[in-house]
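User: Hey, my collaborator sent me this sequence without any context and asked if I could get a structure. I don't really work with proteins. Can you help?
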Amino acid sequence: MNTIILLVFLSFNKKKELISYLRKDKNLNFIDMISTRKINDGELYDYKVCSNEDFIKADFSFAHLLHGEYYGLNITPDKNIYCKSIVVSEFVSEEAEAFNKVKSDILDEIILVGINICDDISDFQSNTTLKNKIRKYRDHLDITLSGNYEDIKSAIHVLQYLLTNRGILDKHAIYNLTKCNTLLHNVENNNIHSASYDLRLSDCAWSQGKYITLNDNNPTLTIPKYSYVLVKAIEEADFPKFLAARFDLKVSLFFKGIILSNAPQVDPGYRGGSLFCLLFNATDDDQGLTRGNHFATIEFNMTARVTEGYKQQYQGKKNLSDFIPESSAVSKGGQLFERLQSIEDKIEQLEHLPESVYKICIVAGGIILAGVYFLLMYFKK
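Assistant: No problem. I've predicted the 3D structure and written it out in C-alpha cell form, which is a compact way to encode the shape of the chain:
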C-alpha cells in the first residue's frame, strides 16, 4: 500500500512558494493535476493543461467538473511513481469535497491535508470568512494545518515521517503539529515531553450533583473522600483521522490514592471537543486539585491507516453539561462516605433501643417465620 498526500489549499497565500519548496524534496514524488482550464499570464502553474477531447479519452482515478472546466488526477500514472512511499499532489477545497466521495474506491492510502498559510495566526483567528470555509470542508479533510509558512513546512515534513514510519508521536512531532493548530488547542509548550503531553485542569468540574467553577478566589477543586469528580482539561482535541490517543493519571496523584477510572481513548478525527475523565478519591481524606495544574498525561498513536474519523454525537462538544445526562447531573452520586455514615448512625440508634423493643422484634420475627413454614407445608400437600 502506498501513501498519497493531497494538499488542499484553503487559501492561496504563499502557495507557489510552498509547492516549489516541496518539489525540491527528493523524498517526495509529485503527481500533477490535469485540467482543461488554460493558465493566464502570471498565474501559478499548478497543473498540466489538455484539451477537452484528450481529457474525455483519458482514464483518471478522479475527475471533477469545477466552474465549467475539467480537473483530473491519475493516482497511478506509471510504476516509477512508487519509488518513494509518499506522493504529493494539489487540490482546491471544492475538489476535496468531491474527491472524498470516491476516496474509498482507491486501494492506496489517501491523506487529504488542508493547508491554510497565514503570516500571523491572529489574522486567521479574526478571519471569519476563512474559518467558516475551513469548517465547511474540514469533514472532507483528514487533517488541517493553519500557520505561517515555516510552520507549515515543518508540519508537512512531520507528516511525511509519521506516515512512513507510524508509531507513537515524539516531542518534535507534537510540537510542530500543535504549532499548526492541529492535535491540541490551548497548548503550553513546556508541557510537551519526549513522547507525551501533560494535560492541565480546567476551571470546570462536577461533584455530587453540582457543577463547579474554579477561579482566582476559589482555585482548588476538592475531591471528597470515597467520592468522585468529573473534570476536563484546558486543552481541546483536534485530532487528524489517522491519530488516536489515550491519557492516564499523573503518577503522583495515583500515589495519593486518586484513581482515574476510565483511562479514556480519544478516537481519530475527534475535533474541537473536550478531554474529560472521572477521578475517584479512594482515601479517607479529602484531596485537592488546583486549576491549571498537570493532572493527566496523554500520548498519541498513529493508526495502521487513515480512518473515516469520529462522527458521533460528542463531536465539537466543549462543556461538561454536553456529556453528562440531566438525571446524572442532579444526582447525589459519589456520596459513599455520607451513606455509610448514615447507616452507622442508624445502627447506633438500634443499639440504644429498650430491651422490651428487642423482645417484641424477636417475637414478631418468630411469628413471621412460623407463618411462612405452615404456608410452605400447606402448598406442599
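In plain terms: Residues 77-85 have pLDDT under 50 and may be disordered. You can pass these C-alpha cells on to your collaborator as they are.
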